[in-house]
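call fold(seq) -> tokens
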Amino acid sequence: MLPYAIYDVFSDRAYAGNQLAVVYDGQGLSTTQMQAIALEFNYSETVFVLPATADGAHYLARIFTPAEELPFAGHPTIGAALAAVQSGRVEPDDGAVVQECGAGLMTIAVDGGTAKLTSTAISVGPEIDPKTAAAAIGLDADKIIGTPKNASAGLDHNFVRLADEDVAAAADIPGHLEKVYMFSFDEATHAVHARLFHRGVGEDPATGSAAVALGVHLVDQGLISGDGVHAYEIAQGAEIDRPSRLLGEVVVEGGAAVSVSVTGAAVKVAEGNLLALP
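ret:
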């Protein structure tokens, strides 16, 4: 038997945010077995909290979608950190834990029921053809604001800026981009309304890896400028009845993003044991 817990991440109440299965004590499992368990839960991600193998790490997180293993993802990182601490498996050092994952070591500050993930694994990718981006979300290319582009803070995402009403009107059209993160951005308040479509997963209620990468994109596009710390707040998931709140922060030095963070709450909604293993 393997113990597990279910958390709703990027929400301060149950039955909102992004669902996450956290499986403990699975170090004897093969990758094939972990993948089968992730498919059994069939959430956007399942995370296995395992003993660390790297110096300086508190634990190892292996993160799976129903179809594949990921090197990093945001809501499993937030959820795993809180679950590891709340289950008593990990004791934070000065209020923080270090997660080992496929993308390297990630530091997460834990404060009660919230956690803050910070990444410096920053990169800016290629521009995306506006017609391709528009076709992926069922809109005309003239609805796109600025330049669609790829950016990463541990996991790359395709960013497409729209007017707020067009974010709500977008539809997931198969056969184009593998994943697309569309967002509106209020330049006065830094409020963001976002949705993410991911082939094979569907619409994501809350996407922490995209939330940090968005900070990189906002600076790259000149929507956030000036050296210092800049905050932005993301509302995501309302269209699929899983409202989520993600608090982003980007540090700018010399006109470039050098660090990005996302903070969110998580609530445990269930726990139990896997009685049969694949």
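The radius of gyration is 18 Å.
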